[in-house]
Please model this.
Amino acid sequence: MKVIAVISDTHHTLDERLYKHLKDCDEIWHAGDVGSIDIIDELKKITKVRAVFGNIDNHILRSSLNEIELFKCEQVRVMITHIGGYPGRYAKGIKDRLIQYEPNLFICGHSHILKVMYDKKLKIMHMNPGAVGDYGIHKVKTILKFIIEGKEIKDLKVIEIPRK
Model:
């Protein structure tokens, strides 16, 4: 069993109010637009971090993070990228990669819009955690938190933190 927190679009800032929601996690997954390698270093002080670079990330982040992360957590195949779209409106090239890699769970960021939905055609759970940074269109900072146990993704929670 693993407790997972998914965040995205920190854009150079880690709100101190996030920490209490992350401290009991086994892993933190960051879906891009990190902003600074310092953000990754700070998150690594809490727990294991898996992250991808986003479109605002500089050469330092691009040389230390991948555009796409593919891995298994328990028995769930996971794919994370920054610009992914969502079922029925995937970003260019994403649907082909989903068909190729066959993940059970697809995570992306970029839109700053929280979205969790199931792609019935591809049989993939799609998650976009919204955004936790101070830059962007979002009115509330959001985090997704859930448990992966074997093949199950369960106990999904949306954590909302008001923007200052």
